[in-house]
């Protein structure tokens, strides 16, 4: 067999290999993320059956130790018929006759419909084992098993069938019209357009399915799902279906799938099948069920409304005759529980309807109602006033996932840097600007970023942090200092471009000619100790009358003399004034330059007032403290005027301005 990698450009080959390696290592979640980011990036067409797809599958299979699945050609050769109705928004569309069956090489109409229905049901792809069981067993009367096998195989990656450019443009118009609001008119005209082009149903379905996951906003995606909902519901209510035949069979296969997954018991599944297949539904049928949606019969998707519509299959009062729809008598069906009121009561409390919570009879009745054309389903279009137009904000991806994505782009970037062949085309899409560490790869050339801003921000941060030292260690043995530093840094408007951690180290209390010199020596010691970037601080309390003493030695004075002693020191002096001084020091690592930031607060020494939990706070009354000692002030008020607050603001400004050079120096 010819090597599918032959003839591919070297940079494309490399890109495929890197991608396959990462995807094999990091799993499905990673694959989905990367695929979404590159949906319309021609450089990654191999992810979507484009150039290199076969080679990509081969490499991926090799990594996973499996055989590569066959890759469908990008454009199937089948010609696409021209659509009859051109405009997406139109007053009175003409319904064309459905195209003869078998005209297309792709999906059959029921498959297309199932694909559409699946859009409303983000089911995880079935595990291979249960899929195999499903395909082997439980053949339902009259259903060609190969069809469902096809649907399931393609469910995750449906083949995108070619549309003519004109139809594609119109479909784009339909989807675009739902961008801001799922208005009744927009949904209706979208549905009419699809109905008018029912001959192209498989093509349209595959296009919508692919597009929906790449729409920029969640709200837009939601609105397109409303369109699909509308289409399915209208279709289900139609006496003569436009595109759907045999959906019932597909649905029954899904029931079997739920059994394989343990969602339904075998007995329940039998019951569902029996009710669904029954010619007439058992029990009393409500004459006007309000609303039944395809979503309601799908796992994990909430039902159509908070209250379940009264369904066929309601329990008969004991001894009452069993009635067929609209009163026609029918023989009782043994063993069928039908609609269980008690179960439904519990259900309404939670408001969540899934196969796990929907009683079997309700589920079966719904399936029967929805899947049998023209029977008991009243069409009720979605009311935009009652349907959410936006989804809750997306969750930020986990740090682990971000790290994996980052690692992938790193590898890719290394490759780009080292490969001469990559010059040109690929670089247009992948650039790392110094100002913008976020790779251009996430942006497609024509469209705005298709990644939610919150993710962009998270990635930006993750990447910018990586370029900086991992952490700047505040070395101190004083818990109170640390508390204040954290508080001051957290309350700043601009975030420090470093992650400040702390280490409790009792450094020797040095002596020296000046406070400055002591601080610098202390910081040098700390950098040696941590072997990386550090910051320290030294606090002094300087009495003017004593020419700056105790100054840096205040710690010992306080320890030996206490608050009273600190006052008595000034007994022979009129001048009780003093200033608190804080020297913050910053050093990129052992042997590197030490930067000093000096903050001062003037005040006077007074008799102790206020809590005694932090040093000499009770005996220092700042000039700007409105008569309060530091100990009597709130944390915020103290930090706003304190020696520490002032020095730290200087350090912060300096670090923000010099982040890059400091980071460089710390390497
Ligand atoms: O805002 C303050 N308000 C009241 N008292 C304060 C303050 N800030 C430091 N202090 C006390 C703690 C220590 O008794 C001396 C400074 O000595 P100093 O060497 O800088 O502090 P330390 O040895 O406790 O911690 P570190 O491990 O960071 O050196 O003044
Ligand atoms: Mg100290």
UniProtKB/TrEMBL annotation:
GO cellular component entries: cytoplasm
Enzyme Commission code: 3.6.1.66
GO biological process, one term: deoxyribonucleoside triphosphate catabolic process
Family annotation (InterPro entries): CID_dom, ENTH_VHS, ITPase, ITPase-like_fam, RdgB/HAM1, Surp, SWAP/Surp_sf
Record bears the keyword Cytoplasm: yes
Co-factor requirement: Mg(2+); Mn(2+)
UniProt cross-references to Pfam families, sorted A to Z: CID (PF04818), Ham1p_like (PF01725), Surp (PF01805)
Cell compartment(s), UniProt: Cytoplasm
UniProt binding sites for Mg(2+): 509, 538
Major site of localization recorded for this protein: cytoplasm
Catalytic activity as recorded in UniProt: ITP + H2O = IMP + diphosphate + H(+); dITP + H2O = dIMP + diphosphate + H(+); XTP + H2O = XMP + diphosphate + H(+); N(6)-hydroxy-dATP + H2O = N(6)-hydroxy-dAMP + diphosphate + H(+)
GO molecular function, one term: nucleotide binding
Co-factor note (free text): Binds 1 divalent metal cation per subunit; can use either Mg(2+) or Mn(2+).
Binding site for ITP: 476-481, 522, 538-539, 614-617, 638, 643-644
Keywords (A to Z) from UniProt: Cytoplasm, Hydrolase, Magnesium, Manganese, Metal-binding, Nucleotide metabolism, Nucleotide-binding
Keyword Chloroplast carried by entry: no
Residues of the SURP motif domain: 15-57
Function comment: Pyrophosphatase that hydrolyzes non-canonical purine nucleotides such as inosine triphosphate (ITP), deoxyinosine triphosphate (dITP) or xanthosine 5'-triphosphate (XTP) to their respective monophosphate derivatives. The enzyme does not distinguish between the deoxy- and ribose forms. Probably excludes non-canonical purines from RNA and DNA precursor pools, thus preventing their incorporation into RNA and DNA and avoiding chromosomal lesions.
Subunit structure: Homodimer.
Protein family per UniProt: Belongs to the HAM1 NTPase family.
Protein name from the UniProt record: Inosine triphosphate pyrophosphatase
Native organism: Symbiodinium pilosum (Dinoflagellate)
């Amino acid at each position: 067999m010819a090597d599918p990698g032959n003839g591919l450009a070297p940079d494309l080959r490399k890109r495929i290999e890197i991608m396959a390696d990462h995807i094999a290592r990091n799993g499905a979640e990673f694959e989905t993320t990367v695929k979404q980011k590159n949906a319309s990036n021609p450089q990654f067409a191999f992810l979507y059956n484009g150039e290199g797809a076969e080679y990509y599958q081969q490499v991926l299979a090799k990594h996973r130790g499996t055989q590569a699945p066959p890759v469908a050609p990008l454009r199937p050769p089948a010609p696409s018929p021209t659509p009859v109705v051109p405009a997406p928004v139109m007053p009175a569309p003409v319904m064309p006759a459905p195209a003869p069956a078998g005209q297309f090489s792709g999906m059959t109409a029921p498959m297309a419909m199932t694909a559409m229905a699946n859009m409303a049901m983000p089911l995880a792809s079935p595990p291979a084992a249960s899929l195999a069981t499903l395909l082997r067993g439980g053949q339902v009367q009259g259903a060609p098993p190969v069809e469902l096998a096809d649907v399931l195989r393609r469910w995750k990656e449906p083949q995108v069938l070619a549309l003519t450019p004109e139809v594609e443009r119109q479909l784009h118009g339909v989807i675009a019209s739902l961008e801001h609001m799922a208005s009744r008119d927009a949904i209706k005209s979208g549905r009419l357009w699809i109905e008018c082009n029912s001959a192209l149903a498989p093509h349209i379905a595959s296009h919508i399915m692919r597009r929906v996951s790449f729409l920029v906003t969640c709200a837009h995606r939601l609105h397109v799902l409303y369109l699909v909902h509308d289409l399915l519901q209208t279709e289900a209510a139609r006496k003569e279906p436009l595109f759907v035949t045999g959906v019932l069979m597909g649905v029954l296969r899904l029931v079997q799938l739920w059994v394989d997954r343990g969602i339904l018991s075998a007995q329940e599944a039998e019951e569902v099948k029996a009710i669904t297949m029954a010619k007439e539904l058992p029990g009393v049928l409500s004459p006007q069920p309000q609303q039944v949606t395809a979503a309601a019969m799908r796992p994990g998707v909430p039902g159509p409304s908070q209250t379940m519509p009264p369904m066929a299959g309601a329990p008969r009062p004991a001894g009452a005759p069993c009635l067929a729809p609209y009163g026609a008598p029918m023989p009782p069906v043994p063993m069928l529980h039908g609609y269980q009121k008690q179960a439904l009561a519990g259900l309404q409390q939670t408001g969540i309807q899934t196969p796990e919570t929907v009683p079997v009879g309700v589920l079966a009745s719904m399936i029967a109602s929805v899947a049998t054309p023209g029977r008991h389903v009243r069409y009720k279009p979605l009311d935009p006033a009652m349907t959410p137009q936006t989804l809750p904000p997306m969750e930020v991806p986990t740090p682990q996932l971000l790290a994996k994505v980052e690692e992938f782009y790193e590898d890719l970037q290394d490759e780009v840097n080292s490969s001469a062949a990559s010059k040109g085309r690929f670089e247009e899409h992948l650039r790392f600007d110094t100002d913008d560490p976020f790779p251009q790869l996430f942006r497609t050339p024509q469209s705005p970023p298709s990644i939610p801003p919150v993710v962009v921000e998270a990635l930006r941060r993750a990447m910018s942090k990586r370029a900086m030292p991992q952490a700047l260690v505040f070395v101190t043995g004083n818990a109170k200092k640390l508390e204040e530093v954290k508080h001051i840094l957290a309350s700043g408007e601009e975030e420090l471009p470093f992650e400040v951690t702390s280490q409790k180290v009792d450094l020797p209390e040095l002596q020296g000619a000046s406070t400055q010199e002591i601080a610098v020596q202390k910081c040098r010691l700390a950098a040696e100790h941590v072997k990386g970037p550090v910051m320290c601080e030294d606090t002094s309390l300087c009495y003017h009358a004593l020419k700056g003493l105790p100054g840096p030695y205040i710690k010992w004075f306080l320890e030996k003399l206490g608050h009273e002693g600190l006052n008595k020191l000034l007994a022979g002096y009129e001048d009780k004034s003093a200033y608190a001084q804080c020297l913050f020091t910053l050093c990129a690592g052992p042997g590197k330059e030490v930067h000093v930031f000096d903050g001062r607060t003037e005040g006077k020494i007074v008799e102790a007032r206020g809590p005694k939990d932090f040093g000499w706070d009770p005996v220092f009354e700042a000039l700007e403290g409105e008569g309060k000692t530091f100990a009597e002030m709130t944390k915020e008020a103290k930090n706003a005027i304190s020696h520490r607050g002032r020095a730290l603001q200087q350090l912060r400004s300096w670090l923000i301005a010099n982040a890059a050079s400091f980071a460089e120096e710390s390497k």
